[in-house]
Design goal:
Distance between the termini: 30 Å
Radius of gyration: 24 Å
Strand content: 5-15%
Largest sheet: 6 strands, mixed
Shape: globular
Helix content: 25-40%
Strand order of the largest sheet: 2-1-3-11-4-14
Length: 546
């Protein structure tokens, strides 16, 4: 679910997307003598070699747009050891356009509509089909220049399906980290606070309310100040909802399960439903409004950014929050022992639901893309192969230098997360700063040795959550580009409306009259057609799997 964003950003995004309907991404004009790196006397085959280093017979500069991770404390990707080594060995000059994660969605749209975009874009693009013509098919380049990608898709044919369009073209390569873990999100609670107040782990939504109220009123951190934040969150969607309100809805028997980006839909008994029109969603809004009114929900949650959210967590202020993989990213290594992962509460029917990952680990289909303005796409593909073609390079890009953030034990990767060096508040900061981390274009399926306290804590998520995994979900894959484009256009309007509706419902309250008006508004927004498009996709993929 996409929640509130600053008004100016919403207006800007809407205008940009409307513009893209008219013009789309136009291929660049025929490049002349002023094109970067142009050399009309030299053919591509002569310039870029299929194997060996350096990758080309002449200097080539690649402009690469990447997302700057909020935990990355480096001054620039150019300073990272992996980048310096790559430039030295490949002979390529790598110029980085680093976009702050908070501005990524807006800036991607602006740049792609400007017709002056870089050679490579690294990072997922919401509504990719709107911009597909800005990128080149990679099929032939993969076959000729990326044997590692060929082997990867042979090993995981279902993941090849997930990145292949109906025209049988592949426009992007994924980021993949095989953890062997299907857990998608987690609920963290301050066990020290529970013990200080002699409270039990909440089992129902009423229990959760009572615990949060006790956190607010009874000084669980025992500092004689009312500084506790019972429930902390923020709405930055570049985190895919892990810290916002997309996981909390599990407490009400709902999950959020769209394609590529959360689209407010789920599958139940073979039918796709739009969760914001389900009665359980009304229960969710009433509960959240009650929390907000009683100051049990962070009053800054709708406006604060990721850094604000993490700073509060690292100051030990949170009693309860949702997160992705590691709670120390939120609360810091110095506080992580105070927190435990708990199950979502039972819904009104006494059931629990958990949305699992569709791939056991981290998988983002749309990650590494080569644009139509790249004069030497072969060089870009050779760079991808260089990064992923050896274990040493892949780990340098994904985790950093060996024995600094990672090591190997019994042939498996072991994160050195039990004690981070001075100057880093979490292992995530260490990894993102020393390497490209979760912003980088790598695939890794070596698996992990879960042995440090941090990793053991993470590794128990499947054991704890798997009995409650939903069995039905929208499968990975690429839908018809025209349908996808239409759906994303519809969702732009739906999302703008929903952002305002959710915030207003929680901050100002919701009642049956407002809910009835909301249902009528959803009909006017053509939600029925939106759901029908998803249903057709779901039915088509299900038929292919039989």
């Amino acid at each position: 679910m996409k929640l509130i964003s600053k008004k100016v950003v919403v207006i800007t995004l809407t205008a940009i997307l409307l513009c893209s309907l008219v013009s789309g991404c136009v291929a660049p004009e025929t490049q002349g003598s002023d094109s970067k790196g142009s050399d009309t006397q030299t053919t591509q085959e002569e310039v870029v070699k299929k194997t060996g280093l350096p990758v080309a017979n002449k200097p080539i500069t690649l402009e690469i747009m990447v997302r700057k991770h909020p935990n990355d404390k480096s001054s620039s990707w150019s300073d990272k050891p992996c980048v310096k080594k790559a430039e030295e060995e490949t002979g390529l000059k790598l110029e980085w356009n680093e976009i702050l994660q908070t501005a990524w969605k807006e800036q991607v749209s602006v740049i792609l509509n400007s017709r002056q975009y870089p050679d490579v874009i690294v990072g997922d693009i919401e509504g990719f089909s709107l911009f597909k013509d800005c990128f080149i098919p990679l099929n032939d380049l993969i076959d000729e220049y990326a044997p590692t990608a060929v082997k990867f898709f042979e090993k995981y044919p279902e993941l090849k399906v997930a990145v292949t369009y109906l025209d049988r073209n592949i426009y992007f390569l994924p980021q993949y980290q095989a953890t062997g873990i299907n857990g998608h999100g987690s609920f963290g609670i301050n066990k020290t606070w529970l013990d200080n107040l002699s409270l039990e782990i909440p089992e129902t939504i009423d229990d959760l309310y009572n615990v949060l109220k006790a956190f607010r009123e009874n000084d669980p951190n025992q500092n004689n100040q009312k500084d506790e934040i019972p429930y902390g969150f923020f709405l930055e969607q570049s985190y895919h909802g892990y810290h916002s309100l997309d996981v909390i809805i599990w407490n009400f028997g709902l999950v959020n399960d769209g394609l590529n980006a959360f689209h407010d839909v789920m599958v139940e008994n073979g039918k796709v439903i739009f969760i914001p029109t389900d009665d359980r969603y009304y229960d969710f809004l009433k509960f959240m409004s009650k929390l907000y009114a009683e100051e049990l929900l962070d009053q800054d949650g709708f406006v604060q950014n990721s850094q604000d959210f993490f700073n509060k967590g690292k100051n030990g202020l949170y009693g309860y929050f949702t997160y992705h993989a590691y709670d120390d990213i939120v609360v810091g290594v110095e506080n992580t022992d105070d927190y435990i992962r708990i199950l979502p509460t039972k819904d009104r029917n006494g059931n629990r639901v958990v949305q699992p990952l569709k791939v056991a680990g981290g998988f983002t289909p749309d990650f590494f893309k080569i644009t139509t303005q790249c004069e030497y796409p072969e060089a870009a593909m050779r760079l991808w192969e260089y990064v992923n073609g050896s274990f040493e390079n892949k780990m340098l890009w994904a985790f950093g230098t060996e024995n600094e953030a990672w090591t190997t034990v019994n042939g498996k990767i072991q994160m050195m997360s039990n004690k981070v060096p001075e100057g880093y508040s979490s292992y995530a900061e260490l990894r993102q700063t020393k390497a490209t981390g979760m912003a980088g274009f790598w695939i890794s399926d070596e698996g992990f040795n879960w042995s440090t306290p941090r990793e053991l804590k993470r590794a128990t998520v499947d054991e704890q959550y798997s009995p409650y995994f939903v069995k039905e979900y929208i499968p990975l894959g690429q839908d018809d580009p025209d349908v996808t484009q239409e759906r994303n256009i519809m969702y732009t309007e739906i999302n703008t409306y929903m952002s305002n509706f959710i915030a207003e419902s929680i901050i100002k309250g919701i009642d049956e009259g407002k809910w009835a008006t909301h249902l009528e508004n959803c009909k006017k927004l053509n939600v029925d057609q939106f759901v029908a498009d998803y249903q057709a996709y779901y039915d088509r993929i299900q038929s292919l799997m039989k």
